[in-house]
Specification:
homodimer, about 425 residues, alpha/beta, 13 strands, elongated
Chain lengths: ~425, ~425
């Protein structure tokens, strides 16, 4: 098997096929082989038969962050072209755990845990994916049935020398760190999933390239048309330096609340923003190019960043939650006080006015009784500080009063 | 696991245990660990519980020669000490064949072929082994049941680095020759057989040492007392130089006829004779030492070689067949004529005597008619040449006449 990437003669393909290729390649690290993928796209267009796009998932870590959604975003873009995503839960090996028993932090999962994790993952992934174009599969369906015999036959399709070419195996072997023989079996099983699923394309992170190529190799060994592989880069985290990860703390979990998500996105650098646009946004590339031109011509990049934050927050929450989060963000960026709040001037004795009366006279409360109730409930803020003393006397001066989340007034108590 | 062989304190063990150790070690290449084996022997003696001694067999080549019987001979010696031999047919992997499909000369065997080969092997092996102390087992009984999951768990108990220490893997890897991943699984399965059988000792050729140690390792991993391993050297063939093998033509098949077997043994050198005595004879070592002393004192070593040939021929055929073969050998070594045959003098006209009359007059045939029948049947030899012409006239002179296999006479036809 040679893994050259010959230049396909693009003129042989329709405009829509070439556009589909561009969408596939957007932000990607590597597509192998481009020519094969073009042929598959053209065949799908001619036959109306969608292509089968595989994403393998380890059901052990269901809580995903934006870094994980780079691949999901790509899958959604391909679904929007009409293709089918196979969301493959690697339950077979997860239920074995670490069979060497040396890694006690990786106990085998029960069938129930796997199912639960897979459901949690699916729930989260369906914020990005189109459920109608997604198949959920479990690889125990075919891996178990291989039996000892089938597994040996599978292992006959790959050499030790090629296995040792995998970066981590090579490094560990060279460093004298132990590799258990069963670790050679896992990539074979992952590759066999592609055979069982007859996949046309498999997605993964750059670090998965070896395993993705295994699927390609095994499909050929089993007499199938080999899948293409598409590797996506790892997303830089909030700091713009390290890859997004929980342990670095530079991540946005997709279940984080809308306000936090929105604000975190607004915190990234302009450079990182363009990167995230490429990898996380569903906006077509030409729109993003427009944005770049506008910024070059003087538009405040923050406005573009707000659009990204709105898009992503809408995806994981809702349009309303994104609006609310945008409002909240603006509010907090001005010390918590919105622009354009009503200004109300009240005559005030030199000894000052009671807070209840002020609330009533400004219309923030219908009565002093209601005002007292609001104060007792912690619903009243004076210059951004919650007050609890309903007997509080305000001396003449200027105040910002807030009732509940959204009702504000600037009050001038004038002697 | 350390594979040191600490000197056991022999004084702690009974005389019979120490003798059993000597029998075990007779002619062996290596016994690991001697101390463990002594403990097992002592325990067996104390409990009356026989030890379990494993010999794994590939059911693909049922036609065995004396070289293969070195190990069988050792097993028989151990059976004579009271222990149980487990004759293990490796049918599981034999029925997979070469799953890479690259070696078309090694197709998978059917269950029937395996059974048939195993039966043939057993029939041959029972010429050496004591059937009452032999269990015949097939490893598919437990290998199949491992399933894909069990096989992965098994493979987790061994590292790639240690696998690469196996001589042939190391050599092939270094030379850039391909090793398929499934080849790493076979030694694990062979080792797992020891776990399934709870074996106390495994025998094999020196070239099998790696696989024998695997059994020891896996038993420890599965919480069992590890087996000892006993490697036996490969037997030198008839030429005394190369190892006995069919392809070298320097072998004695155990199904070869008694006369051929006997004669081939008599053809070996005196040096090789002592080697074969050690490895193939059931005679106790002190008897063999006696023989050596006798030869040193002037006894013809051929007499000792005849005893070996008789022992081995008796084993694979019978005492009577060995007698017959000894006779035949002597006969042929004297041009086919036994010593001490009757000498008969007959008066003879100068023109000679007809063969039929000679046969009748010497008493080798009851009548000339019967003499003619014998000649027609090819049953009469004259000076070792079969004759067919019943009208043959013998001129005066001396002749050796033979009728059938055993009746001889030296005839002097005197004018």
């Amino acid at each position: 098997m040679t893994e050259q990437n010959p230049t396909a003669n693009m003129e042989n393909f329709s405009r829509s096929v070439r556009e589909a290729l561009a969408i596939t390649q957007r932000g990607c690290e590597e597509l192998l082989l481009t020519a094969d993928w073009l042929r598959k796209l053209a065949r799908a267009e001619a036959s109306g038969q969608p292509l089968r796009i595989k994403l393998g998932l380890d059901p052990t870590a269901p809580d995903i962050h934006l870094g994980h959604t780079v691949v999901l975003t790509k899958l959604r873009q391909l679904q929007d072209l009409g293709h089918t995503v196979i969301f493959l839960i690697g339950d077979f090996t997860a239920r074995i755990g670490d069979p060497s028993g040396r890694n006690t932090t990786r106990p085998p999962l029960t069938a129930e845990q796997v199912k639960e994790n897979a459901e949690t993952y699916r729930e989260q992934a369906y914020k990005v994916l189109d459920p109608d174009k997604t198949e959920l599969r479990y690889n125990s369906q075919w891996s178990e049935h291989l039996g000892a015999r089938g597994l040996i036959e599978l292992a006959a399709h790959y050499t030790v020398a090629r296995m040792m070419e995998r970066n981590d195996f090579h490094a560990r072997f060279t460093a004298g760190h132990s590799i258990s023989v069963h670790e050679f079996i896992y990539p074979l099983l992952q590759g066999y999933d592609s055979v069982a699923l007859k996949s046309d394309l498999e997605l993964g992170g750059t670090d998965q390239k070896f395993n993705l190529l295994m699927g390609r190799h095994l499909q050929q060994e089993y007499g199938q048309e080999p899948q293409c592989i598409l590797t996506m880069p790892l997303l830089e985290g909030l700091d713009g330096v390290d890859k997004m990860s929980k342990s670095k703390g530079n991540y946005i979990g997709i279940t984080e609340n809308a306000n936090t998500m929105f604000a975190k996105i607004l915190s990234i650098s302009d450079d990182l923003m363009w990167r995230w646009y490429t990898l996380l946004s569903m906006r077509p590339l030409h729109e993003i190019d427009d944005f770049k031109r506008q910024v070059a011509a003087g538009r405040n990049p923050k406005e573009i960043k707000v659009l990204l934050a709105r898009e992503i927050t809408t995806r994981y929450h809702s349009g309303a939650a994104a609006d609310e989060a945008a409002h909240d963000f603006e509010l907090r960026s001005r010390g918590g006080v919105p622009e354009n709040i009503p200004e109300i001037q009240l005559p005030c004795p030199t000894e000052g006015l009671g807070i209840g009366l002020v609330l009533k006279q400004t219309g923030l409360a219908p009565s002093t009784k209601e005002a007292n109730r609001l104060i007792a409930g912690g619903g009243v803020r004076l210059n951004s500080e919650t007050i609890s003393d309903r007997a509080l006397i305000l001396a003449p001066g200027s105040y910002v009063l807030q009732v509940g989340k959204r009702r504000f007034a600037r009050v001038l108590l004038k002697v």
